[in-house]
Amino acid sequence: MKCEIIAIGSELLTPFRQDTNSLYLTERLNELGVVVAFKTIVGDRRKDLTNAIRTALGRVDIIITMGGLGPTEDDLTREAWADALGTELKRDADIVGQLYVRAAQRRWQLTENNLKQADMLDGAQMLENPHGTAPGQWVDTVFGAHRKLGMLLPGPPSEIKPMFDEQCIPRLREIVPQRFIATRTLKAAMIGESHADARIAPIYSQFTDVETTILAHLGDIQLTLISTKSTMEEAEARVNELASLIEEELDDLVYSSAKQSESLEQIVLYYLEMRGATLSVAESCTGGLIAERLTSIAGSSRSFLGGAVVYSNELKTEFAGVPEELIEEKGAVSREVATALAEGIRRRCRSTYGVGVTGIAGPGGGNEEKPVGLVYIAISDGVQTEVVQKNFSGDRERIRFYASQQALDMVRRQLM
Amino acid sequence: MKCEIIAIGSELLTPFRQDTNSLYLTERLNELGVVVAFKTIVGDRRKDLTNAIRTALGRVDIIITMGGLGPTEDDLTREAWADALGTELKRDADIVGQLYVRAAQRRWQLTENNLKQADMLDGAQMLENPHGTAPGQWVDTVFGAHRKLGMLLPGPPSEIKPMFDEQCIPRLREIVPQRFIATRTLKAAMIGESHADARIAPIYSQFTDVETTILAHLGDIQLTLISTKSTMEEAEARVNELASLIEEELDDLVYSSAKQSESLEQIVLYYLEMRGATLSVAESCTGGLIAERLTSIAGSSRSFLGGAVVYSNELKTEFAGVPEELIEEKGAVSREVATALAEGIRRRCRSTYGVGVTGIAGPGGGNEEKPVGLVYIAISDGVQTEVVQKNFSGDRERIRFYASQQALDMVRRQLM
Q: What does the sequence similarity comment in the record state about its family (chains A, B) (predicted)?
């Protein structure tokens, strides 16, 4: 079955914004064996929108629109669907009721425009939206003598993903012919893409029935193995076989090989908890990024105590007890100060491990001796302190992320 | 004049790749006054490709295809254009000659497939490609009684950009009526989309010649105003007029109205520097996110000193001097502890302002009295401390982001 994804919003036709939701939907659709044949991006003009939907109805089986379900004047997706199908919208009393209840709970004033969100296509099923106000719609109809499936989904990623996963996929599963796809994802930190590929290409190239893709992103390599077979056992056996061989080759560089791929911060917290250990961080150039990444995981408070963002020299002394003379003598960006940060924050927080990071994230602040991208990362367990020097390339964002990635990977290795 | 950009390549329909060339072309087209009304992404299937081109011929004036001009089996753009226009391809002897010369220079073996690159649409002009082998084509024809302009451009960014700039833009300039486009972006924090729309719709709906779009994302509203006129003065006057009226209505909710739109963290740092003031933060539930957002901006060290991530109660006392008894009596998530965090971190860091945040980001940890989403945010200037209570909805990521957004917006308002 062929699908077209239509992203709606005039902002997506400016030079500054791109649709990214479709990547997620494509991945989930492919898992079901549905091919995405077209993607269309169209603005908030009713005529253009109707044209895009009618075109899709003429060339594919499944049409997904994303966006334009909000309460404003330029949310016209419902109207355009009705125009394209040659049908009418009907205001659904139940949904009107729900909108009033939700507005009352949040003490919002409901406007006439808000009620547009209760307008349903003839014969459509409502898709609930627990993460926003705009309900989606599921259409299963006949158009031009062919069965067509339509989904009207909201635009925000936090709304579209759960709605698609929980309400569209189960419905699609009942309609789309069954195929079995097994996937495995291996993740490795701080290894270059071409270096990784050179090591593993001789292995995966022998598995011609397993699709292997390598994706590199900011100090992270993600290997995705996909096998499609007529039984799940067969598909899983093939990806597992290949995964084992790759893991053997890359050894301790691989930090995650679970079916449900984990992030480096999840792995670090998992190991910390398993060992009954705690962690604190003193961050200069990463400015809170390591703490932010760890605390983004629910339950992180069991192992991550907190720490300090010590951007100024005074705070390095105040919060991590780094001697003023040491900063003066060696400079704030130095092996010695990184070590003192790790040891000092560990003592102050009474944690099992302490991490210290100091460096030059740029774009300014570098010189010949200490260039932009120079970062020292230290980890202390109270007995000894390991410190590494790195020269990262890239812009401020990249350098900061690499430094946080390196720090988390060092904690992981300590715990292994 | 309306344009459609068609990106060609099956890899652009996988979860892993996106078309980015269109952003560049859109920017250049907008400068000419050409509106991009549709973008379509289609794979290397001849039938789908023909369908996409024919659809575009039916709904816009200018059609640009990107990619599919190479020498391989699945480079089918030329054939699809011929199918869509109902015309024939003719092998151009001059281009064949050029291909041979180029191959000889590079000691390539020319295959029969390579010669496909010399196949021209009837009446088309060749667009030279100094950066690759595949020449482009310029089509100026009549289809369905309307004049249509077509461009067949190569896919690689290094080839398409110079070809478009040097050979397509001069041709377009002679045909497209001269128009000028002015844009303005207004940003406001912590106001709901429909609430904002209800307040400003009466204003912008009177400016029928200015296109207004509202985009909401995690506690941020972005209003884009676009005006197209025959002189730049006129276009700018219209967007400026509308922008002033909206700013007047939304008053201090608007934090950015510059031509080049700024982020909330940039605005906060800008105001801090302007006032010669400094800031420190003590973060519990946001876990470093506020510090991370501020330090992501280059030069933030001039005004942002740092702070503490005080996830555990012990660290709230250790780093921000919050009395143990206060935490015991009122609970870590309370108005009083937020206040003590703001005041304590300000004292410890000797900054002009101190911010304290404590709350329940979830998914666990909530109860009836203190539910998930409850967050207290305090800001102290040493004389007085303002504290607000918020009940944010959404998942952990949203709650944390909203809290950081609220905190930054409170700093902004203090500084105004």
A: Belongs to the CinA family.
B318 CB neighbours in chain A (<8 A) are 348-349
Quick one: B213 and B282 in the same domain?
no
- Tell me if A62 sits within 8 A of A108, measured CB to CB: no
What ipTM does this complex have?
0.71
Buried b (16+ CB within 10 A) or exposed e, A139-177: bebebeeeebbbbbbbbbebbbbebbeebbeeebeeebe
pLDDT of residue A105: 83
For residue range B288-329, list pLDDT tens digits in order.
999 999 999 999 999 999 999 998 999 999 999 999 999 999
Peptide bond into B363 cis (omega under 30): yes
Q: Do residues A237 and A274 share a domain?
A: no
Chain A residues near residue B47 by CB distance under 8 angstroms: none
Residue identified by tokens 């909805």 is B393
Tokens of B402: 């909203």
**Are B147 and B105 in a shared domain?**
yes
**Cβ–Cβ < 8 Å for B377, B407:** yes
| Same domain as A313, residue A207 | no
CATH of the domain at B353: 3.90.950.20
| Backbone φ and ψ of A89, nearest 5° | -95, 140
Q: What's residue A393's pLDDT?
A: 87
On whether both A344 and A399 belong to a single domain, the answer is: yes
Q: Looking at per-residue confidence, does B272 or A100 come out higher?
A: B272
The pLDDT assigned to A49 comes to 97
Task: Decide which of B178 and B75 is more confident.
Answer: B75
Backbone angles phi, psi at B315, to 5 degrees: -75, -25
> What is the C-alpha separation between B340 and B322, in angstroms, rounded?
6
Nearest 10 degrees: CA dihedral of A59, A64, A65, A69? 140
Helix (H, G, I), strand (E, B) or coil at B113: helix
Minimal CA–CA distance to A348: which of B325, B45, B167, B348? B348
Give the pLDDT mean for A326-332: 97
pLDDT averaged over chain B? 93
Rounded to a whole number of angstroms, the distance from the CA of B341 to the nearest CA of chain A is 14
Domain end (from A175, A202, A234): A175
Distance from the Cα of residue B301 to its chain's centroid: 26
* B312 and B205 in a common domain: no
Q: Which domain holds residue A198?
A: 180-256
Q: A residues 176-235 near B, CB within 8 Å? A: 213, 215
What mean pLDDT is predicted for residues B146-161? 94
Of the candidates B38, B295, B395, the beta carbon closest to that of A52 is on B38
Instruction: Determine which of B292, B322, B401 to mutate to test the interface with A (most A C-beta atoms within 10 Å).
Output: B292
Of B15, B193, B217, the CB nearest to A30: B15
Interface-testing mutation among B2, B13, B21, with chain A (most A C-beta atoms within 10 A): B13
Establish if B24 touches chain A: CB-CB under 8 angstroms.
Answer: yes
Give the domain-ending residue among A175, A196, A224: A175
* Chain B touched by A263 (CB under 8 Å): no
B55 contact A CB<8A: yes
**Which pLDDT value is given to residue A291?**
97
CB contact under 8 A, B292 and A294: no
* A68 to chain B, closest Cα gap in Å: 11
B79 vs A131: which has the higher pLDDT: B79
Does B334 lie in the same domain as B251? no
How far does A141 lie from chain B, in Å, by closest CA? 23
Q: Is the pLDDT of residue A381 over 80?
A: yes
Q: Are residues B397 and B274 in the same domain?
A: yes
d(CA B225, CA B210): 6
Measured distance CA(A39)–CA(B224) in Å, rounded: 25
User: Do residues A76 and A68 touch, judged by C-beta distance below 8 A?
Assistant: yes
Mean pLDDT, range B374-388, rounded to an integer = 97
Residue B64 pLDDT class (50, 70, 90 cuts): very high
Task: Residue B87: give its domain's CATH number.
Answer: 3.40.980.10
